[in-house]
Design a protein that fits this description.
This protein is mainly α and 245 residues long. Helices cover 73% and strands 0% of the residues. It has seven helices and no strands.
């Protein structure tokens, strides 16, 4: 008599049942999706590095750089499986920065604030999200996988971009950063930062102040310690991917 009153429990669609249904699919698909996400994020960060290094300081070039940096920030949040509210906040901020860069480009402002703001947001907000995502990946997979290696490589490049941003900020505040009156353009700061981070030390650019010397020496230490500890530890414990049966 009661069968017509209550429908079968299996036919009810509730948020809990939907999440359970998604969880039954996620374990098989999540590793591949995370590899693709962190691989795409790494490619975007490398593209941002290259573009900032070779782009001429024109207004529309700077607008394009700002858009790429803003997109990279959203990719970092997406790769780390950030909460929905954080994703929407990142999208809103990124759109605001990109719109501001377009306004500056239309006004003919070459040295606008939008690229620097986009750089700042990327190097400040992306690393914590990537760290959280890498830790989640290691815990979920109970070992080091390729997405974790991609994640720490993203962090390594962001460290170099962060120091370049600091060098540029010092030049804006004090009027110079490099010795011999060399102008601290964004491309030169990026070049000097990664030459220091990787301890290449070409010697064509040197810091002029004691603060610059200390920062560049600190960056060299961070770069070497990061490679010989975190990166080498993860790579040495990298688990081979299991083939699906």
């Amino acid at each position: 008599m009661d069968h017509g009153l209550d429908p079968p429990s299996e036919s009810r669609l509730t948020p809990d049942s939907e999440s359970r249904a998604e969880s039954t699919v996620t374990p098989a698909q999540t590793p591949r999706r995370r590899r693709e996400r962190y691989g795409l994020l790494l490619a975007a960060i490398v593209a941002a590095f290259w573009l900032q290094g070779i782009a001429t300081p024109g207004p529309w070039e700077q607008a394009f750089v700002s858009g790429l940096l803003a997109t990279t920030l959203v990719l970092a949040m997406w790769a780390a499986d950030s909460r929905r509210v954080l994703m929407w906040m990142a999208v809103a901020v990124s759109n605001g920065v990109f719109i501001a860069s377009i306004v500056e480009a239309a006004a003919g402002n070459v040295d606008g604030a939008a690229p620097r703001i986009a750089n700042l947001l990327l190097v400040v907000l992306a690393p914590p999200a990537i760290v959280v995502g890498v830790v989640r990946s290691v815990r979920a997979r109970d070992g080091v996988t390729i997405e974790a290696v991609f994640g720490v490589l993203c962090l390594y490049i962001l460290v170099g971009m962060g120091f370049a941003l600091v060098y540029g900020a010092i030049a804006s505040l004090t009027g110079h950063f490099f010795a011999n009156g060399t102008v601290a353009t964004g491309a030169r700061c990026l070049y000097f930062s990664f030459a220091t981070l990787t301890t290449v030390g070409y010697g064509d650019l040197t810091a002029a102040s004691n603060l610059g010397h200390t920062l560049s020496a600190s960056e060299a230490l961070v770069g070497q310690i990061y490679l010989v500890t975190i990166v080498s530890l993860l790579v040495s414990n990298l688990r081979p991917r299991r083939r699906a049966r």
